[in-house]
Backbone:
């Protein structure tokens, strides 16, 4: 009997359940950030004795550490991974140990969160300190797999969120708002997959090769990242029909990615029609940011790193040259994506708005 393992969250759990029903699950690690996974320093947490049982249980379990030793001991034939949680959950320090912020703590009351701030040093998701720790740990994780488990076949799940909801438990606006959040996180997951692919030779990518959707019977409830069971069943069947691991690609499926993104405008337009007061900034950000993010994923050009544009550069340039701030998130991100400060300046100077103002400046 082959040994299977997974590290990530519900996508990995679901795929393993349907793709390897006859295998022995030798190891699994759910919802723990790689910075904690690779940190072997155990923690004896004090002061959480009266905390809700679910939060306390998760923290005490994670504080025991030893994850990579257990993975090494399991020596799985296949390791399935996804980065859904890595693109959302913050991390924190307790003395010298690194831990993952539990989801339940994010939804706890202000008193509970105030207690947490007094016990732990929180490193918010997306901060420079957060990504420095995560990318350093990810490098160590790749080195660990290469050195200690060279024969293990690593399958990275490229799992975009789905706007196709076929249930009734969640209203359309709530679902689409959640979809917007996850769609913004998805390029981060893609970047992490590409980071690992370049460093783990025995690795492949699996993108669900079927239409993806969520319904009310999805594991953990309907959500953009909770696919219907039928999606995973079909994905597992096609995986084996194509030869399993050997039939997978060494790169993310561009067609699946672009197909998923192509439904964005329609999804948000329908939501706006059903709720006229819905803020459209999410759509502006998505369509402004995606070309820039996708360029970073595919082939980061050297010019992006020569005299790079910072967010305050865009605002300052608009104020100095046009006398105002960017009118929308889309405008901001389109200018933020320019190659350097010179191109930003030249773009604004060539703008129709500035050219119309020149004659008034000349008179003065």
Residues:
């Amino acid at each position: 009997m082959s040994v299977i393992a997974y590290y990530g969250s519900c996508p990995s759990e679901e795929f393993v359940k349907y793709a390897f029903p006859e295998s022995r699950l030798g190891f699994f690690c759910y919802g723990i950030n790689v910075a904690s996974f690779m940190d072997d320093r155990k923690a004896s947490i004090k002061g959480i004795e009266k905390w809700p049982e679910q939060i306390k249980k998760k923290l005490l379990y994670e504080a025991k550490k030893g994850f990579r030793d257990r993975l090494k001991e399991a020596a799985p034939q296949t390791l399935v991974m996804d980065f859904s949680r890595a693109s959302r959950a913050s991390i924190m320090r307790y003395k010298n140990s690194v831990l993952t912020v539990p989801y339940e703590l994010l939804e706890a009351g202000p008193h509970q969160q105030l207690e947490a701030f007094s016990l732990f040093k929180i490193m918010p998701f997306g901060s420079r300190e957060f990504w420095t720790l995560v990318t350093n740990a990810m490098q160590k994780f790749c080195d660990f797999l290469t050195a200690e488990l060279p024969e293990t076949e690593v399958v990275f799940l490229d799992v975009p969120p789905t706007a196709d909801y076929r249930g009734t438990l969640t209203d359309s606006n709530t679902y689409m708002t959640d979809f917007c959040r996850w769609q913004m996180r998805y390029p981060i997951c893609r970047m992490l997959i590409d980071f690992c692919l370049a460093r783990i030779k025995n690795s492949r990518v699996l993108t669900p090769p079927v239409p993806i959707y969520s319904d009310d019977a999805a594991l953990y409830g309907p959500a953009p990242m909770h696919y219907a069971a039928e999606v995973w069943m079909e994905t597992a069947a096609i995986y084996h029909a194509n030869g399993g691991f050997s039939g997978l690609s060494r790169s993310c499926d561009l067609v699946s990615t672009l197909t998923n993104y192509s439904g964005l405008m329609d999804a948000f337009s329908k939501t706006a029609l059903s709720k006229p007061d819905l803020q459209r900034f999410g759509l502006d950000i998505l369509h402004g940011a995606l070309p820039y993010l996708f360029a970073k994923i595919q082939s980061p050009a050297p010019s992006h790193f020569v005299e790079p544009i910072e967010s305050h550069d865009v605002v300052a340039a608009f104020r100095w040259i046009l006398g105002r701030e960017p009118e929308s998130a889309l405008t901001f991100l389109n200018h933020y994506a320019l190659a350097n400060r010179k191109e930003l300046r030249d773009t604004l100077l060539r703008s129709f708005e500035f050219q119309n103002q020149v004659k008034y400046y000349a008179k003065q």
Remarks:
- The CA atoms of residues 81 and 337 lie 31 Å apart.
- Confidence is low (pLDDT under 50) at residues 277-306.
